[in-house]
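User: Could you go from structure to sequence for me? I need the amino acid at each position, not a summary. Structure tokens:
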């Protein structure tokens, strides 16, 4: 009986692997495609633009700093594969005013054609203990990280649905999968992106438009360098439990997943585990992906409990160290 059950299980798994490609989205062809990247003047955004340009795409870079945009444009153009490719630069704050964002997207489409892929990479990370953060910090991060993704997406979605083709990428963070010490403001803004993406994917999937949410770990970018200046000790020690990623590595994975129409994009073994643990009711791109999540959930939850215990230990040790220092200062 056990052998029969095992045989049925193996046959079922094989069937899933065979059927899975039939229900997966058709890959998006990047040669000649128009890709818009917000936050494209540096870091992950710039590397995503380079990766798409290498594959023959036309690029629109969107960011606030015009000087950095022009520098990024020169760097990206070095990777041209034909003389027809164009890199367009637009200086605008994507979190400030929707009408302004809509207008610049229209200008980009008039010059380079309809947007085939939008990558929402504009973002900001600020760390600090909840009681130390100004209320304005919460508002600022929600505006930049959340509304800064809503506005460009809203500006392109109608055309994508009419054309029955398109990709929208939201760059979240592993801090958008679990809340960590020091990230009460940042994690909130990144968790919001997940809810937006899940609801949007359900609306646009019938129109052959696919949404990807990327959850990169700490990545060696100018943004991380700025964030590290204000990180509490606990946050820094927790962050150091995982390795630092290169932006080129992250960008390559995000572009690959977006082309395939994968809802989730994660980096490395930790990223894969986190995505399986936090999948919940998130869409799956294939039956195989869903099956893998079901099979690995129990094991990954067990591993996660050890991680959580380690993080709590870091917080307790930092608290004890701080208390000892305060006592020493008082008695000195």
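Assistant: Here is the amino acid at each position, in order:
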């Amino acid at each position: 009986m056990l052998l029969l059950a095992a045989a049925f299980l193996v046959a079922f798994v094989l069937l899933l692997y065979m059927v899975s490609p039939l229900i997966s989205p058709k890959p998006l062809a990047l040669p000649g495609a128009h890709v818009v990247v917000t936050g494209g003047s540096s870091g992950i955004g710039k590397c995503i633009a380079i990766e798409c340009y290498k594959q023959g795409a036309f690029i629109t870079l969107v960011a606030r700093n015009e000087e950095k945009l022009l520098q990024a444009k020169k760097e990206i153009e070095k990777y041209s594969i034909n003389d027809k490719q164009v890199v367009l630069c637009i200086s605008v704050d994507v979190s400030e005013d929707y009408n302004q964002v809509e207008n610049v997207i229209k200008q980009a489409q008039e010059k380079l054609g309809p947007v085939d892929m939008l990558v929402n990479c504009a973002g900001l990370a600020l760390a600090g203990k909840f009681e130390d953060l100004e209320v304005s910090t919460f508002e600022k991060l929600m505006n930049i990280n959340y509304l800064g993704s809503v506005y460009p997406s809203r500006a392109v979605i109608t055309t994508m649905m009419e054309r029955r083709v398109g990709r929208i990428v939201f760059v979240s963070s592993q801090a958008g999968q679990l809340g960590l010490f020091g990230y009460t403001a940042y994690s909130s803004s990144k968790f919001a992106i997940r809810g937006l993406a899940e609801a949007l994917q359900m609306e646009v999937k019938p129109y052959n438009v696919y949404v990807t949410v990327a959850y990169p770990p700490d990545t060696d970018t100018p943004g991380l360098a700025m964030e590290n200046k204000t990180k509490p000790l606990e946050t820094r020690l927790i962050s150091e439990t995982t390795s630092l990623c290169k932006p080129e590595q992250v960008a390559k994975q995000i572009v690959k997943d977006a082309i395939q129409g994968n809802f989730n994009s994660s980096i490395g073994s930790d990223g894969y585990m986190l995505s399986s643990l936090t999948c919940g009711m998130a869409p799956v791109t294939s039956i195989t992906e869903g099956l893998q999540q079901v099979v690995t959930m129990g094991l990954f939850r067990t591993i996660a409990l050890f991680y959580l215990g380690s993080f709590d230990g870091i917080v307790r040790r930092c608290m004890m160290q701080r208390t000892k220092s305060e006592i020493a200062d008082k008695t000195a």
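One structural detail worth keeping in mind: Strands lie at 34-38, 58-63, 87-91, 117-120, 166-171, 209-215, 264-266.
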